Amino acid sequence: MPGMNTRPRRILLAVTGLTPQVVTETLYALACRAEAPWIPDEIHLITTTTGAENARLNLLLPDGWFHRLRADYRLPEIEFPVENIHILHDANGVWLDDIRTPEQNTLAADFITETLRRLTESSETELHVSIAGGRKTMGYYLGYALSLYGRPQDRLSHVLVSDPFETNRDFYYPTLYDHPIHSKRGDKEITVDARNARVDLADIPFVRLREGLPKELLKGDARFSQAVAAAQCVGRKLELVIDLPNRAVTASGEPVKLTPQNFTLLLWLARRRLAGQEAIHFTVYATNAAAAQEYLAVCREVLGKDSLEIERLEDTLKNGMDSGWFSPAKNRLHKALILALGENGAIPYLILQVGTRKAARFELGLEVEDIRMESEET
């Protein structure tokens, strides 16, 4: 109904190998044992071909352990179709049955990263990620991917199961009734009751790096190595390199795609900074004729004095430059920098506003030693 508060859609994501039990154990800990139950709306798995078949046969058949858990503890409907089991595959779409070679590790890292990116794409979701199952490398990649893409509402955990149930392939969750399963104590085979098992969830704190990632990596086709490199870029040495002949710009070693107007605006402000000129001043109430002529001179140099763009700019700025033109132009340049460098990485390269709104001055925030012009005397 309109006006009602709706909570985010809850998603449980786990990696599994030959032990799909981690799914029911984690679900039990979240939904049945917690003081504040967290019941997912849907469950997703990342696994190999053998892991997928194990999960299907043991969890998702009509009498599978996932359905038994829901029935025993009267849990609501949870979406967990076979389609939510995501099987690792190579570049040709061929499913992987194991992760052994360096190439397979790279494929697994990219697949896990892209799957998690996609599941965190909507702000209307809340993710709980379990790294209890699968190979150790899978858990590592999933935890690191969450560090790269995780949001404030997302959580990371590992399920803890008491002995001797932890390594028992017949144990799926503590039952509400007597459920004998066979186990070993030394050389002897014994029978234990699943209802006596203890299952706890260990929350794992993680560093959230999402805000520092370039916007392009938040949109799709995220490679693990690219995302890690982008996150590391936040701490790189500050350096703005403007290659005038090729109209190319790099910042902290990363290429920045700029439109002609973005390029000329950045070039103009960088030259002013290198020359030690004062910050540009104008308000909504006054224009700055000198600034307009300076900027137009840079545009003629870069774009050519007879270009249609120059004619349009000369007409727009014929009465001088004011904040009505400068602010949108500044915002477009900022958007391009953030797209390439991420929110945090772009901060040092943005145009600074000094002073109050009525007496605002604008300049490039970089220090002179952080700006380099290629193929141009400075």
Examine the secondary-structure arrangement and name the CATH architecture of the largest domain.
3-Layer(aba) Sandwich
**C-alpha termini separation:** 64 Å
Cα-atom Rg, whole angstroms? 28 Å
Structural class label: alpha/beta
Biggest sheet features: 6 strands, mixed
Strand numbers in spatial order across the main sheet: 3-2-1-4-5-8
Task: Report the helical percentage.
Answer: 25-40%
Shape assignment: elongated
How would you characterize the overall build of this protein?
The chain has a 6-stranded mixed β-sheet, sandwiched between helices. A 4-stranded mixed β-sheet has the order 11-10-9-15, covered by helices on one side. 38% of the residues lie in helices and 19% in strands. It folds into 2 domains: 222 residues, Rossmann fold (3-Layer(aba) Sandwich), CATH 3.40.50.10770; 138 residues, Winged helix-like DNA-binding domain superfamily/Winged helix DNA-binding domain (Arc Repressor Mutant, subunit A, Orthogonal Bundle), CATH 1.10.10. By secondary structure, the chain is α/β, with parallel strands linked by helices. The model has no long low-confidence stretch (mean pLDDT 86).
